[in-house]
Design brief:
By secondary structure, the protein is α/β, with parallel strands linked by helices. It has a single domain, classed as Rossmann fold (3-Layer(aba) Sandwich), CATH 3.40.50.150. It is built from ten helices and 13 strands. The strands form three sheets. A seven-stranded mixed beta sheet has the order 8-7-6-9-10-13-12, with helices on both faces. It has a four-stranded antiparallel beta sheet with strand order 2-3-4-11, with no helix packed on it. Helix 2 packs across helix 5. The N and C termini lie far apart (48 Å). The protein binds zinc ion. Zinc ion binds next to loops.
């Protein structure tokens, strides 16, 4: 049973071993403890303030969390997540961006779950493909939606360089042990001047500040919790320029009376203190 009010996650399994990690943003491995939670802990980088699990579970143990239970969660949540992703794309001006691209364009959704967004992009005329580590979710999507989903990591998919006009990922980068390597691979598979959309929880938001370790995104499956500044730096240093940043999520469901939640959600969007951020970046050159 997950902690009340938190995002779904898989409990760390007995026997998992931790390994030392390095800050993906500034490269140092020096940290100070931040939140000690049930079987896992977040630390703050002494170099740049990035929040992450260090030491962290090994990548293979993290990968095994995306099992049949995870598949059930993804199938159950597919429609709600799609709605949120589409709202996020609206905030970033996706329709205008799409219209500015040539008719023949390629879309990649990383961590595509059952492929709802892949299907959506395909219907809008993109050549669309997804990548998903959770085999059950991917197979379900291939079967029920008839979309192209590659099972495994982005690197496993071995796409040719300069393949895509846009790479989208929603609630993926915070799960990846080495997000810098992921961004490098995104840059490689993107065409010159291609777009990268990244949606992830942000530790800069009001809720992380208010709730600390009880924040809904302080969960075992999240290896990293980026600030806006930290994610911008990670992208900038790997050849991207950030064009737009939007946030949403002023207050999670059930944590404040509905009228207050409505006001906070509206204000978070306007003033940028939401606990989820969406970044639109462009590959330089
Ligand atoms: Zn750092």
């Amino acid at each position: 049973m997950n902690e009340r009010g938190k995002t779904y996650y898989t409990e760390p399994k007995p026997g998992e071993r931790l390994e030392a990690a390095r800050c993906p943003v500034c490269g140092t491995s020096l940290v100070k403890p931040l939140w000690q939670l049930n079987g896992f802990a977040f630390a703050r980088c002494r170099g740049c303030g990035h929040v992450y699990q260090n030491p962290r579970p090994q990548a293979k143990d993290l990968a095994e969390r995306y099992d049949e239970d995870y598949k059930a969660y993804e199938i159950e949540s597919a429609a709600a997540f799609f709605k949120l992703m589409r709202l996020g794309l609206d905030d970033l001006g996706f329709d205008e961006l799409e219209a500015s691209l040539p008719a023949e364009k390629a879309f990649l959704d990383l961590g595509c779950a059952t492929g709802a967004l892949v299907e959506h992009a395909q219907k809008r005329g993109w050549k669309a493909v997804g990548v998903e580590l959770c085999r059950g979710s991917a197979e379900y999507g291939i079967k029920t939606r008839g979309v192209d989903i590659r099972i495994g990591t982005l690197r496993d998919a071995r796409f040719a360089a300069d393949s895509f006009d846009l790479v989208h990922s929603s609630h993926l980068i915070e799960h990846i042990p080495e997000p810098g390597e992921l961004v490098d691979e995104i840059a490689r598979v993107l065409k010159p001047a291609g777009y990268c959309i990244t949606v992830t929880p942000t530790v800069s938001g009001l809720q992380a500040r208010l709730f600390g370790g009880r924040w809904r995104s302080a969960i075992a499956d999240h290896a990293h919790l980026f600030s806006q500044k930290g994610l911008c730096r990670l992208l900038n240093e790997r050849g991207f320029s950030v064009i737009t940043i939007k946030t949403w999520g002023g207050m999670a469901q059930g944590l404040a009376p509905a009228p207050i939640k409505r006001v906070l959600d509206k204000a978070a969007k306007r003033w940028g203190f939401g606990d989820v951020m969406a970044l639109l970046a462009r590959k330089e050159g």
